[in-house]
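Per reviewer request, we include the raw input and output of the structure prediction for the construct analysed in the revised manuscript.
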Amino acid sequence: MNHIIEEEAGDIKNIFSRFKKRDFSGPTGQVVKNSTYKLITNLIAKFGSLIFMIIIARMLAPEFFGLYTLTLSTILLFSTFSDLGISTTMLIFVSKTLGKNNPEKAKTYFKGLLKYKIYLLIISSGTLMLSAYLISNYWYNKPIFYALLAGGLYIPMSILAEYINTAFQAGNNFKAGMAKEIIFQISRFILIPLGLLYFLKINLGGSMIITGIILILVFCHFISFLYLRIISKKQILYLRKKASGLKKQEKQELKKFILPLSFTLLSGTFFGYIDTLMLGHYISDATYIGYYGAAFGLIGSAGLIIGFIAASVLPVFSRLQGKLLEKIFEKTKNFTLSIGAATMIFTYFMAEYILMIYGGRFLPATIILKLFSILLITLPLSGIYISYFVSLKKTRLIAKLLITSTIVNIILNIWFISYGLQFGMMEGVIGACIATICSRIFYLGGLILSKRKI
């Protein structure tokens, strides 16, 4: 134990020394540089999204914010079908071939997987646009038809930008992704508020306001895409090489690799958005969806920030085994539990004041935020257990639990929302809260029980 602590302390000291000397030579230096850029990019994205959500909520009424939340959740769900693990597959296969000093084969994998992605983009975007009328008028019965049509443009712009960013990462260039995220955040911080001020000034209807926001976001993603596309010609050297077609055996290998990733990704997306999609169907007044989105957005952001602990311990878990692994796991779990519990208690008692960052119109969401405060324990703890299982390469177990939990989530949402609506719309929203909490506890419980069987 002391040896591990001393080793980790030495690693930290080495990292600070490299920053001080600006020495990022060798594999260790490359890892330090890449991890730093990745951490900064994640922080910019997470805090940027939180601030952006606050700005949008303060400028819009809860009803319009609810429509925006519903629209974006639907678009992001469809966008999942345009990836299905292809970006992750490209990152792994291109990285491996570059590691073997074979840039021509790296270009072949990049180009071959790009074709698959474009096919999926056309299908997912086209399906969203073709089904926009049915979704908005029959499933949701909300005025978001034109906004969903705009989502057909949002999907290719956001997904293609991320695919090029992944190509940079495959070549050990994480700086480009950080610059891309900064460009995106700055552009939407400037353009969205200006656009909203103009929309509100000309008394644009709620449906068109949401459509306008989505179109501006499309433009922001386009700026990011354009930036990456321009610099990729100079900085992604392996893309200059000539690529041959993928062989039959290589295609089969890619399909075998992509298939389990697809199930996990789809299940995770449904697990994250099913509550909002169900509320859109059952709750007629989008104001209550706005309350739900505001509360869950805050909890999700806080949970991700606390969840950084889970990401940081994965390399440590991967180096340990046996009793020492179990001991470090228990200490990490208890530490995470302590932080989560303290944050949960603070959020529960300060919920009303926390929601004031959205403005007084969102105060009815206090009860929702109080209920969701328990997720500040379950979300980070789940992350710790996932890191543990990933370190043992038991990813299939995680996928099975995720799929099962998604099915449980759907059933509970239908049940609790329907029951709550007998008493009122807020009660229906509270039903969705309870369903979400129960499914997250079920998922964590499955992780805990699975660990005991190891």
